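Homework help thread (please don't just give me the answer)

Our assignment gives two proteins as sequence + structure token strings and asks us to describe the second one. The first is just a warm-up. Here they are:
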Amino acid sequence: MIRDYVKKGFYHEALRMYYQMQRAGIEPDRLVFISLINACGRLSDLQAGLQIHQDIIARGIESDVFVGTALASMYFKCESLENARQMFDRMPERNVVSWNAMIAGYSQNGLPHKAWEVFKEMLFQGVKPNSVTMVNVIPLCANLLAMEQGKQIHGYVIRNGFESDISVCNGFVDMYAKCGNVNIAYKLFRRMPKRDVVSWTAIIAGYSRNDHSYEALALFNEMQVQNIQPNSITIASILPVCADLVALEQGKQIHGYVIRSGFESDVFVGTGLVDMYAKCRNVKTAHKLFERIPQRNAVSWNAIIAGCSQNDHPHEALAFFSEMQIQGIIPDPVTMVSVLPSCADLLALEQGKQIHGYVIRSGFESDVFVGTGLVDMYSKCGHIGVARQVFDKMLNRNVVSWNSMILGYGIHGHGEDALALFSQMQQTGTKPNHSTFIGVLTACSHAGLVEEGRQHFEYMKSDYDLAPEMGHYACLVDLLGRAGHLDEAHDIIKTMPLEPNVVVWGALLGACRIHSKIELGVQAAKHLFELQPNNVGYYVLLSNIYAEAGRWEDVAKLRTVMKERETKKQPGSSFIEVNKKLHTFLVGDRTHSQSEKIYAMLETLYGQMKEAGYVPNTNPVLQGVEEEMKETVLFSHSEKLAIAFGVINTSPGNPIRIVKNLRMCTDCHNAIKFISKIVGRVIFVRDANHFHHFNHGLCSCGDYW
């Protein structure tokens, strides 16, 4: 009866039956004890296992090889590794099953090196491995990325005729793929006389893991044609492929299969769906699916946090991060890497500092990705000095770490520091990539280092054999445009080997606005209207160029075109975080509880600014509006309201950080320079185009944005 209970999975009932046998004075035999030991292992019930072990010793059957093997296996399942090894060492006789149990036990407890040592000990003792040994040992080679040892075992398998065992073949497919040799894995897969769902899953996962997404998807489709039903592991392996390819329709079909097959409750499948929808920019569905996962783990939370962060939902990402901790899920380094960009996007420095503290307490500082995330966060929150401190303390740095720090210097206008760091990077032997030169060229552009920028554009081709990409040409056009070399910038666009995109033409249009090059600006705008006819920002920029030149007829014509194309200007909004709470302002906003204080503060600042020489730039405001009304419109722009709120609600001397959803207008930019000097504050503003660092009446962008 006990053996039947265990076979059917009724482990508690089996143990209760055993206790009844004891009370009745009935002696269990060896096979019953083996069944009871298996039940304890399945339940991970160490106390019951220890008690039964004592009963076995009392009956003098511990020396039985099958009982001893079962006990060792039970202890492994109860994570009592020391007891397992002691039991194995006490066994007077061991067979291949005993050795297999030890290898499997260490492997399943995340100790592949220990398992490998047992396998070598087994061979030294002259015990001949069987196919089960191979099934246990091959994954060790995969987990240890020990392909040479894997090849030796492959040779042993061929010599001993185990190659026909489907489980052994599946192991080799998985092993070669995990070791990065997906071509051999594929050849083995194709040579298999018989394949099951594990075979297909192994090769699909292998291609997915090695960034061969199209091949993985093709194999998944072929699998279905062959009428092999995917299991939950197959689905968890193919969903990242749909995410990487942004193959939403294919992902939806797989989702339908998941629902029909009842896999929705599987945490790995559910997490894969959340990740897939998020990477396909369907955050709403990702959120709904996340809420349906019955038992969410750290990977599930990381998926939704990263999904929100990567899809411009930083508020939601931080909210999920807080909820994750409330739910008692311990964040890991991946969580840190996922949530830090949201702190950067919101200029949420205080939350970023708290996360940094958690990183230190949790020992994550040595993680290169976490360190790089902190460098990026501090840079974008305006603490470039702290960013450099974090960078200098990093024990390991990769090319992304260097790129992040170089770009950080660049967006703050510290061009010389960026170039010095680039030289240091070269001296360490770290090879620059395309992103490195984006940072270097950005730094040159923001600091007005024209000649250095030209040189580094050539260096990337001559010294590093890196063909300039669209972003590099955009940086070069921006560099030349800022310095007033607009004809040269235009020549670069006309002769570049790539078809210029909106970023390139947008850089030229921005330069034309700064330097009042109307006709060239019109040419740039025409290209932009063709590429993105509904992007209202370019119409507004050209309209401002016309308005600055007093060409009101052209302004009116442009507004007619905008009306015909049904392009509407997005309302300007700015937000500021004070005491961990976000405050959002719209243009002319009077809904805030402190509106009276805010407008009173602006009145005070306005008077001081005029005394200091500030003259409102009313040119871009519509013609026909009285000058006083024009000034009133400018007076209530959202960024000015947010800054006034910051002056009122933060301590004197503390920096003020705000985020604006659109490009800052000329008047606001000029006004904030005056405000920064009057109130003695550093003011950070990130608008839709640039990062602005205002201090002592100057801006890091050099009045070019």
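The one we have to describe:
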Amino acid sequence: MGSIPDPGDISGDLTAPSFDDFQKQTSLMTSCTLLWKELSDHFTSLEQNLQKKSEALRNKLQTLDHQTRETLGVLEKREVTIDGSVEIALGKVEESKEAALIALHKGTQDGEVDNSEGLLLKLKSFCLKMDSKGFWRFITARKKELDVLRAQTPEALAECVDPAKFVLEAISEVFPVDKRVEKSERSNDLGWACVLVLESLIPVVVDPVLGKSRLLVTPSVKERAKNIAETWKASLDQRGGIENVKTPDVHTFLQHLVTFGIVKEEDVDLYRKLVVGSAWRKQMPKLAVSLGLGDKMADMIEELINRGQQVDAVHFTYEVGLVDKFPPVPLLKAFLKDSKKAATSILEDPNNSGRAVNLAGRKEQSALRAVIKCIEEYKLEAEFPPENLKKRLEQLEKAKTDKKRPAAVPANKRTRASNGGPMPPAKAGRLTNAYVSSFPAAPTFVRSPSHTQYPAAVPAYPYDRPAAPSMYGSRSPPTNPYAYSPEAAPLAGSYPGAPINYPAYGGYGNGMAPAYQQAYY
């Protein structure tokens, strides 16, 4: 029998684990722990993402359900109100028809319209008869009565059997293409009349139940309006492109789209360029919103600011409620500084030396008026008091008036009664080399208009601080930016001794040359 080994015997071949093996096992455990943690984080992240996506899908489904219910409700309301709206419209058509027949039987007088009531009756007469051409001639001949026309034209258009068709026929002479044979500079621009008629049509064609969400325009008239819009867009190249098209034409086109509800999403970029190019028009901010440009308004405002149209940018900010993002007061101050720089550049331009003061003054006056009007319109007096701006405007206007006012002839100028020549100086006989001519005085040589000396203008007004404006850089600002003082030039052919005192020219007692005098050669 073999012997059984003793368990307590330690003399066997038991090898103690080495430190390297222990370190390997430790590294393996660490790697497993890190891998487990990474997998756990990964699955936790997946679970969180799934939960977020599930929540987003749930919200979208709820939103879609809510929108679907709203849309179905609107459609149901529109369907229910169709009969009522059609009945109301048919009633108006019958009333207009009866009134038109009565007017035709009675006839109309072509007398002068001397008050607003007579003007309204005349407009209604054209609308009752559907006389679009007579209506158009009557409107275009009364631009001075624009406010009265704007108030009474909607009431008159309501008398038409088909107001939308009537308006399209009325403006067809000049829109989308000007078909007039004879044109004149005075009557060439009839865009104001087109915009007036198109604006007046809106309250007439809105649904009496649903309002502006549904327009009572027949499909045939709406299709005709779409064709007119496409014709205008096709003629852009003939008009010089988007950059050169006239603002009245742009305004008429955009108002046409809004009035007939034919705005296209694919033409939004075109609308944006047209609005920015004619942003100075008062109605443009509202038109931009009606054209669906509300989400692009921030970029449009930035573009206007970069183009130096800060006042126009202020109007757009108030229309869409972006006053916090684009504070108006800094924009108005920047506009004044830019206008001041432009006026200074005009003064420094040698090509405008003869009229630089007048041009610079007019530019500054225009900027001041625009800023003052903007402050008053949006009640910004607390943030930007306009008193100093008004004082500066009065100073510029006064300086312009004083420059045009002729000065009185001084009493000490003696004139020869016989031939209009000048009398010699009172002390001419006491002078050694005094020379007195017995012939009429030679014409005075006056400097050209480009060197005319202007009276000193009022000092420039610092708009927001007493220090020198930043536009001058390291240079000090000119003490009198609007005064041009040329050097005195001696007259050719002067005689020695005491000069002859010639009479003041044209009644200017201050010896200042007039703005223009015929040159003598």
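TA reply:
I won't write it for you, but here's a hint about the kind of observation we're looking for: The chain is about 55% helix and 0% strand.
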